[in-house]
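pinned: reference chain
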Amino acid sequence: MTTPQSRNYSASKSRTHTQSSEAKIIEKCKLAQKRRTLPYRETFEFFIEDFKTYKPLLSSIKNAYEVMLAHQREKIRSLEPLKAKIVTMSEDCNERILAMRAEERYEISALKKEKMNLLKLIDKKNEEKVSLQSEVSELRKKLAEEYLCYLTERDARKILIGDLNELRYQREDMSLAQSAGVWGEDPVKLTLALKMTQQDLTRTQMELNTMKANFGDVVPRRDFEMQEKINMELQEQLDSLRADYEEVCKEHELLLQLHMSTLKERDQYYSELQEIQRNSTPRPDWTKCESIVAGGPERWQLLAESKNSDQLVEVLLEEIGAGLLREKEFFPGLGYGDTVPPFLRFDGPVENKKPSKKEVVNLLKDAWKERLAEEQKELFADFFFNFLERRFGISDAMPWAYTIFENIKLFRSNEIMNQFYAVLMGKMTESVYINQKETLTHLLKAMTNADSKNEGLITMEQLSTILKSTFPLKREDQIEELMEAGGWDPDSNSVEVLNYHLLFTEDEEGQSEPFVQKLWEQYESEKEAYLQELKQDLGVDLNDEVTLLKLRGALMNIDPSLDKQTLSAYLSQAFQLPVSELPLEDDAKQEEIVIKFQTALDWLQMADIKRVGPRELEPAS
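pinned: its structure tokens
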């Protein structure tokens, strides 16, 4: 960093150098001028010597010129310091101007920073203003409600005071009306009359209590006859229904016999079918695939473990597709059509980056982490391409997009790839994946809290308690399925402990443990049962149209515990409308919003739809 002293020293040094260079230039100019005038001087002296007659005149002329030249030289010599001073002053002025400009630039940058700080402060104040305005509006609403309550109370108070005044006036009038006659009666007679009246009142009260005790439960004869008539009608209906029931029971027994005979025939036909299939279609020898699959017999046994023939065919197709995918050097571009996803719009060949399956899985995990960390304002497809640009650069983003897309489209048996492909292609919403992660996090936290010794172990009884508290709507058999997937042996009587951290681990290719797989299988089956229950409650065909009002009522029927926010989210997903545009419960516009029921089911199937509470039994009539 340069100091003012160093700048002044460099300026004075440059000024001195400039003055010395100017002095040299002036000396050179003088020498050049002398050399230029020297021939003329010698020629003029020659003329003076030759022309004797004009010698005095020429001499005077020469002297006059010499005097004038000497005067001019003196004048120039006297002006030289002034010129140097002017040059110095000019340099000083230039330095001052540069210093002032530097100061102005510094001040401008400081003012810009201050401006940015003030703008941030203004934004903060505006946010505070908006929050205060919302608070003021809420307080105004509360004040209006309190004002109405106080207004109602004041009116009731006025009415009560009016009634009290009216009663007081009536009492005064009665006292004035009776005063004239009372004073004329005998006090003993009045006292005796009062005692008799009190005795009559006591006797009447006792009779009234006796009547209430004896006839409090007695109904009027008219109501009794009406109920007797209704009872007779119901008895007749019961007799007819009993006769119908006996006929139905007989028919049921006949149908049971027919069903048993049909079952025997079905079992016989099924055994014959199995025999025919065994004889006509030989079972494939899957051991032949050991030499074809990369990795040999060990890897094939790992891939084929606990899989049926259909799943083995899918595994074999994935292996074949993976081999073909590795052989490809380029992918053909899909163009810029509307049907092409935005992250694949490109013309020409695209390089195949040829990553391993593990690298693709790790890349998808990183994408999910970054997606969950941001505010999720942009579409998932746009976020995916932007993520690739940030990770690999703009030039390599498109090749990686094609490479990852081809991999996740091929390996559908991989959970992470299958979920990412479904979300990327719009076949599943992000809320499903987010719900899965939150559920696993909640389960792991509950198991960690149950692990009081912090050893990473819990008992099977603790696991059962945690599963029941976390999933209160699951049946007992579903809880047992999850426990068996976690390693519980129902035939063992010993107290088993479980390393619960192993339930949530994943292998290198992103495959989760059987416990997590069973959890998501139950989630899918529960969602399917929930939507099937919704269909039965509506009582419509898939091609029929359903209104928003009808769908709202059906959802509340099958799941009465639905809160307003979740119900609005389900309706928004089914009708593909923002929550803010949904009409209220008592709005007549609900009948105007119509959608095909099959379309609504498809939209609901894509989202995170699940039962919130148990379905309450309808009261018997």
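why pinned: The two ends are 94 Å apart (CA to CA). The chain has five domains: 4-142, 225-282, 328-428, 429-519, 539-621.
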